[in-house]
Amino acid sequence: MALKMRSSVAHAVLALAVSFSLVAGGPLAVPAAAQVQPNGPESVADLAESLLDAVVNISTSQNVKSDDKAPVPQVPEGSPFQDFFDEFFKGEGGEEGNQGQTVNSLGSGFVIDPSGFIATNNHVIEGADDIEVNFANGSKLKAKLVGTDPKTDLALLKVEPKAPLKAVPFGDSRTMRIGDWVMAIGNPFGLGGSVTVGIISARGRNINAGPYDNFIQTDAAINRGNSGGPLFNMKGEVIGINTAIISPSGGSIGIGFSVPTELAQNIFLQLRDFGETRRGWLGVRIQPVTDDIAESIGMSEAKGALVAGIIKGGPVDNGSIMTGDVIIRFDGKDVDEMRDLPRVVAESPVGKAVDVVLLRDGKEMTVKVTLGRLEDGEKQAGEDEVTEGEGTTEEGMAPETGEAQPSKADTVLGMGISDLGEEARKTFEIVESVKGVVITEVAPDSAAAERGIVPGDVIVEIGQEAVTTAEEVKTRIAKLKSEDRRNALMMIANRTGALRYITVRID
């Protein structure tokens, strides 16, 4: 009945439209937006048939030693998606009493070179002792792991075929638009490829899986075992690697995520050529430019990446880029928000000289920078210190100590402040490299407390000008009040020297 009613209404609307066109004395004009194909794309059978042979099933096994009957692990330790969703490629593992167990997993992959290079997800093969690739024609080959990149959850395998394999080409994911048709192919159970079709639902998704998140979201069904399979455009080109889903049950609910080829293609090339990644490195700590920070430094809009620290010995430890700079363009690419910078830097070749456009003291300027290698920087200083995009949100915590806090503290914006002498440095265990004005106490309901400031933090700058005495802090705040500023921009160091910019509301 409902269907008939909808049909009747449709006929009535059509009759009314025809009548209107006859009265107007001309043909019926259909708006461009109304010229849609109600039945979706034409058959994709020919396209799917030409691609199925290049999509493979990847079977892995891992020997797990156990003293008891522990359950089969659902997510490998260290997986970048451990906190976001449960893996959807796992198969069943067997248990053999207390003698340990063999965990078997299934996933998908695809051939990117006829000589035998196969792309997949890192979490599909992570921790595997044995990797076997099952092809659509029923043949099987043992695979060797060429290299992995946990930061993007990608991995490259190599098999030794007797004849060239069917491979699929990469396309340009940057040309894909929301609403474009896409096809996902997986080979989850080794029974042959499974094909689903949908559209691109969104682009540039950040699901907090890693520092370079830029996922394509699609409603093409991605189910258990499809992880590592390709996402194709309607030309038969790979524009994404199916990696993650959001699902309470493990099945598709129309929210799937793929690593775009604009990021993945270069990773696979590096893994093939070097067996490892070789990412560009700028050597800065950055944080987002909030509306309050933008207002405090005179920016008309909140955009770019705020430089909160320079890594000692890094590529820009020569004064070319300074703390307080806001990077708004890198090598011709706009940096609209903080997370854009790590990605464009990582995609740039090591040793390349690039132009960096930044804002300093309210003026736009361009500096030339030669990039280092991120992996070398990680070995030199530790990953947490060198990865652009991790931010500087670590809060300095005052140590538990029975010693008295420094006396004669002034109060400003709900903070007790004092010159940073030896007594204060010893009390709060502040490293020698930190210079500024120590915060001795913070009122619980103050604006400073809202921003996560704690006793033992040190005010290094106010309004991008260094301060060394409590009197200077009071003078700067008073000046900002006289200028009717709503917020005070401060550079804060914790007791270990980690820097961050914050804004504190001026009451």
Automatic annotation (TrEMBL):
GO biological processes: proteolysis
Major subcellular location class: periplasm
Database matches in InterPro entries: PDZ, PDZ_sf, Pept_S1C_Do, Peptidase_S1_PA, Peptidase_S1C
PANTHER family to which the protein is assigned, alphabetical: PERIPLASMIC SERINE ENDOPROTEASE DEGP-LIKE-RELATED, SERINE PROTEASE FAMILY S1C HTRA-RELATED
Name under which the protein is recorded: Probable periplasmic serine endoprotease DegP-like
Domain PDZ residue range list: 266-362, 401-507
Key words, A-Z: Hydrolase, Periplasm, Protease, Repeat, Serine protease, Signal, Stress response
Reactions the enzyme catalyzes: Acts on substrates that are at least partially unfolded. The cleavage site P1 residue is normally between a pair of hydrophobic residues, such as Val-|-Val
Species name: Shinella yambaruensis
Protein's UniProt keywords contain Signal: yes
TM region(s), chain numbering: none
GO molecular function terms attached to this record: peptidase activity
